[in-house]
Amino acid sequence: MKRFVIQAAVLVAAMSLIGCKHSEAPVQFHAQGQPATLSEWHVLAADGKRLRLNAGVEPYALNTALFSDYAHKLRTIWMPPGTKATYQADAAFDFPVGTIISKTFYYPRAGDGAVLRVAEQAGETRDGLDLTKVRMIETRLLVRRQTGWVALPYVWNEEQTQATLARAGDTVPLTMHRPDGSAKTSFAYMVPDENQCAGCHATNNTTRELHPIGPKARHLNRDDPWHPGQNQLARMVATNRLQGLPGEGVPHNARFDDPAAPLEARARAYLDVNCGHCHSQVGAADTSGLWLDAGTHDARRLGLCKPPVAAGQGTGDHMFDIVPGRPQDSILVYRMNSLDPGAMMPEVGRSTVHEEGVALVRDWISAWLGSCSSDGTHVALK
Fold this sequence. Notes:
Elements: H1 2-23, E1 44-46, E2 50-53, E3 58-60, E4 72-78, E5 85-86, E6 100-108, E7 115-116, E8 129-130, E9 134-145, E10 148-156, E11 163-165, E12 170-177, E13 185-191, H2 194-201, H3 217-220, H4 232-238, E14 242-243, H5 263-275, H6 331-336, H7 355-366, E15 371-372, E16 378-379
Parallel strand pairs: 5-14, 7-12
Antiparallel strand pairs: 1-2, 2-8, 3-4, 4-6, 6-9, 9-10, 10-11, 12-13, 15-16
């Protein structure tokens, strides 16, 4: 009798698990249209207490991430079962039709209704997000359809139970400070509209096709935060989500905040992910002549003693993009440190200054040697 009761209990538990599994609808790829709510995709599920990832939705992390007003980000990729992304050394991986990439922007909560300016912690997103401790702002989807990539921004409600499509963008007023209450800042967090999404993700100024920015070898080549001891790219291969990964020579960007990494590697990684998708040989800012992507090594193209293409308030009355040893005279630092819409860089995606990023680029320029002559010639030290 006892044995029967135990077997029955096991059966009930098994049936309960099966029922729970079936109650969660699988990820739904929409080949066309613009679903009004994020829940229609079944990539993420939120009930006001926890944000969870659906089956097959895999989180990923970058070495150095794009700055977005100190927001934390939970990034995920879902690909149709049986499909794989194809490795590319320099460009974003070639993802199959049906791929859904998500990026959820959130902040740790402060006790006074504000949000906290703190660095992301290890394990912060290991089991989704504890919504009693964080405030979600938006989730952006990048969807690979037959005709190409489509960007869709969704804004979360106050209850953190649903996110609604915001094609025209949105503005979310926030107050942010450090845990000790210092560095208090009130600002308007800007959710980009569809055109602004395209402004960054159209990484080729000729074709104007949208592409992912983060899922590139140099950004993904790192330890996997959710599976300690495993390389993120190697694990993608092991789980049949990536093909073509070479055995060696995979590019790698530094972490901008890693004090053990060389200063130049950290600064170049920061400029690459924050600026390089526009400031490249083929990007939207190609005519500026200032190329900040990882593949550019010509010092002149990086801004050394290079005068701006167009003068104006964006220069701050400075003469050159980079003046060696003099960050205070360099246009690059001036624009990174500005909140003036006519001068700030990047032009969209931030309403605050990334103090740590500016300090890093200042240090990098301070280490350059030589000077600039009045005609823009670099004068090396003798």
